[in-house]
């Protein structure tokens, strides 16, 4: 059974003057329900993440400043918007949804979070609209509860997963793989276990060929027993911020490659949606829905 984390707060708008397309988090499940791809039973609303789980991944002083809304002005500018209690709650529910999704993936092979992919949040900082790193928190949850021994994080958002790389630097049980635009945010990159930085204008052929080779190499080298996949659609040629040139068909093929290698190695995968900033919201939603459609075709 396909399980998808969704809560109305995922679509909560940012303060005036700091908005970005959060509406997609509401439209994605609506579209999948409309198509009959999923039913209400496929959706689950995550609870609030516990402080204990936060502190496995993020520094205590950073979390205290988030919780008490006392993060400094400079740190808030790095995040990209003013801090509010609703935004903190949103991140707590997103991260709990990714933990729950990981547990569902162990049962069903794959599970989704409509939101998530907050990969710019490092151990002691937030950045790029990311306060808490949902997949890093979930990875530590699996490790600390002896539910996984070797984890692979596949980050195919157009932006490098710098926070994820920093959190797991020196952690041999977690292999971080980021394929992203070289000339894009964050401009100060961290070092993943494998970084593939693509030049501006890279399209389907370049992207898919490099991904195919990288997946084969990483699975052979690291032999993961669990995968987290960040499936941002800001790699599209229509994206306002991405600078790459994948077609929607190429983006869907990307998802297929990831799912197929997980299936072939019998490794469960949790998927968080990541970024997408095309001018037309329908393009964003359809590209994200393709990730769900591909998973349904392959797993169910």
From TrEMBL:
Query: What SUPFAM superfamilies has UniProt attached to this entry?
Result: Arginase/deacetylase
Q: Which InterPro entries match?
A: HDAC_classIV, HDACs, His_deacetylse_dom, His_deacetylse_dom_sf, Ureohydrolase_dom_sf
Q: Does the keyword Hydrolase apply?
A: yes
**Does this entry carry the keyword Oxidoreductase?**
no
Pinpoint the Histone deacetylase domain residues: 18-289
Q: Name one GO molecular function term.
A: histone deacetylase activity
Keywords from the UniProt entry? Hydrolase
Q: Output the GO biological process annotations, alphabetical, semicolon-separated.
A: epigenetic regulation of gene expression
Domain of life of the organism encoding this protein: Bacteria
Would you identify the family this protein belongs to, as annotated?
Answer: Belongs to the histone deacetylase family.
Q: What is this protein called?
A: Acetoin utilization deacetylase AcuC
Show the taxonomic lineage: Bacteria, Pseudomonadati, Bacteroidota, Sphingobacteriia, Sphingobacteriales
């Amino acid at each position: 059974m396909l399980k998808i984390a969704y809560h109305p707060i995922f679509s909560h708008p940012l303060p005036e003057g700091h908005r970005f397309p959060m509406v997609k988090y509401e439209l994605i499940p609506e579209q999948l329900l409309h198509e009959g791809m999923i039913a209400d039973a496929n959706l689950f609303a995550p609870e609030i993440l516990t402080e204990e789980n936060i502190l496995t991944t993020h520094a205590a002083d950073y979390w205290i400043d988030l919780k008490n809304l006392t993060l400094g002005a400079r740190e808030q500018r790095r995040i990209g918007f003013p801090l509010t209690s609703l935004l903190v709650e949103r991140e707590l529910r997103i991260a709990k949804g990714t933990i729950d999704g990981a547990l569902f993936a162990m049962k069903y092979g794959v599970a989704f979070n409509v939101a998530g992919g907050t990969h710019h949040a490092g151990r002691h900082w937030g950045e790029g609209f990311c306060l808490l790193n949902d997949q890093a928190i979930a990875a530590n949850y699996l490790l600390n509860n002896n539910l996984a021994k070797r984890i692979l994080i596949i980050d195919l958002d157009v932006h490098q997963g710098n926070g994820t790389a920093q959190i797991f630097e020196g952690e041999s049980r977690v292999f971080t793989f980021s394929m992203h635009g070289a000339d894009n945010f964050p401009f100060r990159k961290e070092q993943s276990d494998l970084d593939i930085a693509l030049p501006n204008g890279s399209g389907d052929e370049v992207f898919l060929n490099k991904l195919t080779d990288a997946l084969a190499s990483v699975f052979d080298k690291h032999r993961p027993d669990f995968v987290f996949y960040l499936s941002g659609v800001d790699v599209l040629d229509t994206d306002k911020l991405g600078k790459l040139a994948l077609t929607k068909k190429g983006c869907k093929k990307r998802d297929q490659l990831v799912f197929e290698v997980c299936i072939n190695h019998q490794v469960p995968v949790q998927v968080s949606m990541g970024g997408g900033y095309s001018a037309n919201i329908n393009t964003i939603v359809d590209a994200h829905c393709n990730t769900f459609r591909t998973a349904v075709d392959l797993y169910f």
